[in-house]
Amino acid sequence: MLTTCIFLREHQLMHQLNSRNLQNSLAEYARSTKKLVRDMMDDQQSSLDYLSNQVNELMNKLVLLNTVILRKHLDPLPYKAVQSHGLDCTHIKDTVGSVSKTPSGLYIIHPEGSNHPFEVLCDMDFRGGGWTVIQKRTVGIVQFQRTWSEYLDGFGDLNGEFWLGLRKIFDIVNQKATHFNLYVDLESENEKHAYASYDGFWIEDETCSFKIHLGHYSGNAGDAFRGYRREDNQNSMPFSTFDVDNDGCRPMCTIKGQPVKSCSNFSDNAGWWFNKCGLANLNGVLHYTERLLDLWWSGCQVPAQAEDIALANRIHLSAESHYAADTAG
User: Fold this and answer.
1) Residue 69 in 3-state DSSP?
2) Mainly localized where (predicted)?
3) Which residues have CB under 8 Å from 151's CB, separation 6+?
4) Cα-based angle 210, 238, 140 (whole degrees, multiple of 5)
């Protein structure tokens, strides 16, 4: 009887021991399984991140390839500046053009009152020719997030995308006995055009932060410079950048319900003649990977929908002069 009790006791102890071992084994299995699942998820996430980076890289290469293709299909402009001096592109067209057809391209001008000559892009085909191009954008190669000093002197490539520079623009449009027009040309991907024309255009000097002044509007893009409310009017506003803030937001503005301290910061650090941001800004960022164009020109009627203008791939901001002698004649 004693032997039987001892055997039963040993059997119970062995059963309990086996149960604990089984529980420990199950717990260890559960831990190892969880670790395996976590490792697999981490590996999967790493693979997804790698694939995402590869897709972004391919998209960037596609954008560059499209740029190369576009450049090959564009009519090439003379690369070197033509050694034909004039006060501006209109003056060159009226003098050189009287002898022979003046081609579009780079010219050296020396505006009256300017301290030195400089190169400009003259469009001799657009609307009769004689237009001095002061800003041009096509596919977003040149970044327009620039400092005040860069907007003063200009940046980019006159054979491609560029901003001519506030000082040069001032020298051109503030010559005596001249009257300048401003023409903003917008073109969408499906080659639909919209434009805004102003029959007067000049800017004040650097001490007044290059305040812009525009004449009467005509066109089908809408008068985004003046807007539709008094607080949207950007006419007579100084130029503003992220490091020299003249946008009138004191202490801040409200855009679409959001507080905005700086219109330039709100526009990805682009420079423009902001007035509490306003409705016009043609120096925003081109986001070609998402097919977005962060440019403002509200009120456009051609194309009819604003999202069509948001895909504009060509902006041609130009100035044309009319000399007093020509007007009198």
Assistant:
1) helix
2) secreted
3) 163, 165, 166, 239, 241, 271
4) 85
